[in-house]
């Protein structure tokens, strides 16, 4: 006899998984290439935007100071000698001047003045000036000193000097500053001479052009308190009145407690709205608010001059000749900021985080498709799986990041080119490890690919937005507690964002000051958070990888491990569960429920006594499988009661036996197999495979177990040969022994010839997949094999061929098989158990079951409908206790107890009947296994 093969070592399992993974990834090379090239395409988009930005900055950096383009003139070019501008008042536009209304006092002019025009086409509405103070007589005196009753004759000076001696105003809209106050090049520029009374039209010469001078009446009105002034201004404001009308005033003065010894004045002025007729859109948007300050000096000068005249007489003047801004140097032209530095933290956070849902989906896919548990059931340990999977994801991540950094550097992005590449490598390498550990941890919490994909991408975009909108503000706020920054950096995506933010912060400095970007020495600076980020990621990676590994062990195992199972190596394995069962103590119950075993079935009772005897004698290793009071209950949901799938199963299966489990759909067969192969956890009871407890030693059981699941668990892109090579290596087959075993397996299931062995499993038919699943379950000489309906979907020829394979595999191997085919059960199984409603109803070999539950012959006869009664009389003469079980159109079927009839007597009776009436057909059969199954299932369900 061939010596028993030892279990595959850690490195043998790792080699098997590595070879399988390389083959699998080679078949998916296009997807992998597209994945690692994603950064390249994003970099191209960013490089195109940055190229456009450079072209714009190039144009902005070369202004033509000799040009008449006011944009360059006012923003870029030097102005050593600012132009002198006339000090003017800002007058309300003629259609908006204050008039009498329901919400304004009656001393204002009537609204009809807006529609009355003089011979020159100008409105006759005066501009209104509001006054208040503690002393009305003084206030009115000062108001009279502000404005001349008539203009003095034009002096010999130019227009600027004339304006300095008179109170002038304009309803034109000033621009952003006095360098571009109002456009003198316009065809119509109206300057108003503001006075108490009208005077004849006159004209004067301005430095730029000839402009017409129009008189404008100013109407000073007294108000008792500053509150009245304020309310009137507010209610007359464009959006402040309920009637939607506009009533603007020139301004208002509050002389407060002014007297001969004290001058105290407050000035109201409109700094919010333009006054031109065509500026309503800009008015409502608040445009030009700062420009109104340019007209304020004349308003203040009026009050000062009036008070001086009050003290010194009318001939005293305080002239305001001109206003001008301070000279300015040539300004640095407006430059668009570096796009990569500006959007880099958010943009590259999203690009790098896109790997997270990809890794998580790959891990959850193997769990959802049960490929992970399939590999585990054939001997693959958690350690090799983690090492090879982690190495693959890390390799892809490193290539992904190299593609990002190299393509970014080649396209000239400063966020990559200007920093020390070793810092970048350390930062990205640490984060890739942290991201993979986070993906393993998240994958342990999901079992559905679609759900994990949605959650993964939500986390990607939410992390980037949170980092950009909030986390960055926290970093830049010196009052925000630093320890909270570290707490937030414990979120892996935010630690990535912080590192990219630090790179972006150093990028503008490197591009403008001439430094070389971030270096290792910069990490010592207190304001540089990169060192803090590297430390946080390094520590968190160790913590997450430890937690993820142990959580994965906990969720992927059905052996009932506690969360601290990793400490068992220090204190020894807990054998309390096994010891209590071996000593005959009752098995555990669940939720206070108990399930009794029917004791009126002697074969089932005998099997239970056999199991208890084996456990008491501690002889569980003499049988391949021993189950004792094994139970499985599914908790009730949505108001439904508990579902008892397996109710106290006792079974002992020796080596070299094929045990068939029959039962209707929903009887609990698949639930029993799932508990035995580690897919689901038993509710209570015990089961041993070669003496190893499924509660605590499932990992050891996997090394000597083969499984053909009910549904084919295959990789679509791997061939049949590659599947068998992988599982053969897991069973510690090597070299020529492996090649020989694979070829023999392929030949045994008729997948060797015609190139079928090297055809991808995704292109197999359903029957070919079932045959491959059977071959996988048998390769490597497993000591226990579970086959859940192995011949489903096979044609008769393939089914017979498969039966020969299973019969040959029974040598020194225990096979537990479920099937709905009675013919298959009779051919393959040494013993059968009929499983109904979670219980074994009977157990024995096929002949015993047919003898015990089928003690009758089945007699069938077909005649015309007129002779049915004669047929029944004939049967009663043969067997008085005959039972009619079928009747249809002349065909009748009867059960004849074997102890009442003989076959010769039946033939004689039929020959005699043929002479009395026509007999079209007749038959006598023994009880079939199908009859036994139907009888047992029907009886058990009643």
Automatic annotation (TrEMBL):
Keyword ATP-binding appears in the UniProt entry: yes
Family matches, as InterPro entries: AAA+_ATPase, ABC2_TM, ABC_transporter-like_ATP-bd, ABC_transporter-like_CS, ABCA, P-loop_NTPase
Top-level taxon of the source organism: Eukaryota
Transmembrane keyword on record: yes
A Pfam family it matches: ABC2_membrane_3
Record's bilayer topology term: Multi-pass membrane protein
Gene3D superfamilies in the record: P-loop containing nucleotide triphosphate hydrolases
GO molecular function annotations of the record: ABC-type transporter activity; ATP binding; ATP hydrolysis activity; lipid transporter activity
GO cellular component, one term: membrane
Major localization class: membrane
Record-annotated ABC transporter domain positions: 625-862
Record-annotated membrane-spanning stretches: 35-52, 342-364, 385-413, 425-447, 454-475, 481-500, 533-551
Alphabetical keyword list: ATP-binding, Hydrolase, Membrane, Nucleotide-binding, Transmembrane, Transmembrane helix
Entry EC no(s): 3.6.3.29
Cellular localization per UniProt: Membrane
Family stated for the protein in its record: Belongs to the ABC transporter superfamily. ABCA family. CPR flippase (TC 3.A.1.211) subfamily.
Protein name: Putative molybdate-transporting ATPase
Organism the protein comes from: Rosa chinensis (China rose)
């Amino acid at each position: 006899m061939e010596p028993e093969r030892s279990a595959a070592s850690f490195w043998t399992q790792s080699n098997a998984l590595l070879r399988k993974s390389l083959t699998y990834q080679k078949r998916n090379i296009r997807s992998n290439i597209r994945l690692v090239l994603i950064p390249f395409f994003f970099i191209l988009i960013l490089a195109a935007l940055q190229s456009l930005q450079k072209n714009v900055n190039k144009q902005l950096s070369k202004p033509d100071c000799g040009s008449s383009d006011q944009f360059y003139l006012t923003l870029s070019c030097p102005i050593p000698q600012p132009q002198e501008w006339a000090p003017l008042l800002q007058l309300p536009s003629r259609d908006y001047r204050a008039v009498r209304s329901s919400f304004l006092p009656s001393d204002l002019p009537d609204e009809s003045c807006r529609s009355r025009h003089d011979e020159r086409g100008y409105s006759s509405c005066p501009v209104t000036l509001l006054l208040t103070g503690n002393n009305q007589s003084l206030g009115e005196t000062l108001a009279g000193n502000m404005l001349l009753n008539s203009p003095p004759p034009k002096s010999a000076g130019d227009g600027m000097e004339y304006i300095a001696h008179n109170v002038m105003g304009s309803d034109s809209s000033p621009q952003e500053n006095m360098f571009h106050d109002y456009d003198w090049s316009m065809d119509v520029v109206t300057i108003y001479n503001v006075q108490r009374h009208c005077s004849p039209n006159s004209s004067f010469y301005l430095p730029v052009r000839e402009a017409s001078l129009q008189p404008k009446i100013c109407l000073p009105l007294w108000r008792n308190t500053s509150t009245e002034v304020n309310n009137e201004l507010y209610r007359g404001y464009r959006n402040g009145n309920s009637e939607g009308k506009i009533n603007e005033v020139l301004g208002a003065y509050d002389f407060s407690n002014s007297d001969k010894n004290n001058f105290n004045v407050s000035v109201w002025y409109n700094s919010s709205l333009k006054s031109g007729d065509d500026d309503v859109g800009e008015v409502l948007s608040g445009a030009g608010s700062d420009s109104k300050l340019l007209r304020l000096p004349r308003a203040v000068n009026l009050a000062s001059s009036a008070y001086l005249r009050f003290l010194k007489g009318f001939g005293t003047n305080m002239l305001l000749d001109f206003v001008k801004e301070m000279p300015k140097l040539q300004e640095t032209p407006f430059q668009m900021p570096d796009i990569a530095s500006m959007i880099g933290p958010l943009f590259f956070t999203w690009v790098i985080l896109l790997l997270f849902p990809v890794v998580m989906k790959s891990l959850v896919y193997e769990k959802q498709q049960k490929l992970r548990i399939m590999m585990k059931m054939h001997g693959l340990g958690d350690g090799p799986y983690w090492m090879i999977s982690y190495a693959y994801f890390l390799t892809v991540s490193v290539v992904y990041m190299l593609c990002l950094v190299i393509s970014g550097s080649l396209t000239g992005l400063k966020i990559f080119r200007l920093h020390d590449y070793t810092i970048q490598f350390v930062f990205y390498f640490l984060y890739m490890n942290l991201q993979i550990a986070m993906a393993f941890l998240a994958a342990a919490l999901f079992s559905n690919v679609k759900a994990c994909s949605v959650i993964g991408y939500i986390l990607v975009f939410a992390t980037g937005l949170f980092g950009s909108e909030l986390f960055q503000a926290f970093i830049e706020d010196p009052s925000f507690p630093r320890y909270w920054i570290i707490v937030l950096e414990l979120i892996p995506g935010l630690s990535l964002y912080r590192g990219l933010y630090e790179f972006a912060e150093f990028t503008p400095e490197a591009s403008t000051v001439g430094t070389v970007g971030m270096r290792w020495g910069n990490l010592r600076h207190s304001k540089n958070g990169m060192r803090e980020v590297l430390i946080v990621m390094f520590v968190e990676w160790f913590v997450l990888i430890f937690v993820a590994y142990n959580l994965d062990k906990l969720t992927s195992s059905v052996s009932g491990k506690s969360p601290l199972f990793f400490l068992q190596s220090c204190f020894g394995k807990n054998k309390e569960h096994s010891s209590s069962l071996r000593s005959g103590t009752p098995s555990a119950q669940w939720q206070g429920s108990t399930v009794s075993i029917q004791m009126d079935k002697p074969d089932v009772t005998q099997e239970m006594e056999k199991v208890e005897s084996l456990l008491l004698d501690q002889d569980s290793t003499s049988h391949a499988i021993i189950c004792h009071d094994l139970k499985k209950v599914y908790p009730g949901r949505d108001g439904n009661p508990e579902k008892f799938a397996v109710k106290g199963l006792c079974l002992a299966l020796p080596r070299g036996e094929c045990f068939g489990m029959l039962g209707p759909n929903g009887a609990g067969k698949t639930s029993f197999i799932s508990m035995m192969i580690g897919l689901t956890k038993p509710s209570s009871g015990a089961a041993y495979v070669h003496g190893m407890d499924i509660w605590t030693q499932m990992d050891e059981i996997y090394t000597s177990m083969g499984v053909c699941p009910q549904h084919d668990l295959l990789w679509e892109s791997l061939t049949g040969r590659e599947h068998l090579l992988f599982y053969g290596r897991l069973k510690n087959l090597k070299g020529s022994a492996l090649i020989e075993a694979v070829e023999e397996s392929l030949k045994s299931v008729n997948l060797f010839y015609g190139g079928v062995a090297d055809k991808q499993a995704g292109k197999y038919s359903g029957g070919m997949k079932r045959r491959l699943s059977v071959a996988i379950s048998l390769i490597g000489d497993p000591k226990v094999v579970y086959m859940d309906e192995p011949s489903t979907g096979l044609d008769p020829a393939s089914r017979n061929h498969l039966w020969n394979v299973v019969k040959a595999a029974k040598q020194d191997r225990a096979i537990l098989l479920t099937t709905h085919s009675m013919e298959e059960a009779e051919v393959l199984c040494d013993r059968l158990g009929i499983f109904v409603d979670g219980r074994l109803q009977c157990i024995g070999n096929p002949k015993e079951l047919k003898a015990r539950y089928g003690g009758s012959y089945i007699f069938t006869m077909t005649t015309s409908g007129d002779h049915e009664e004669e047929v029944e009389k004939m049967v009663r003469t043969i067997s008085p206790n005959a039972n009619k079980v079928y009747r249809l159109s002349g065909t009748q079927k009867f059960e004849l107890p074997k102890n009442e009839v003989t076959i010769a007597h039946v033939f004689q009776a039929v020959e005699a009947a043929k002479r009395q009436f026509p007999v079209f057909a007749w038959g006598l059969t023994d009880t079939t296994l199908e009859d036994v199954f139907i009888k047992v299932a029907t009886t058990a369900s009643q």
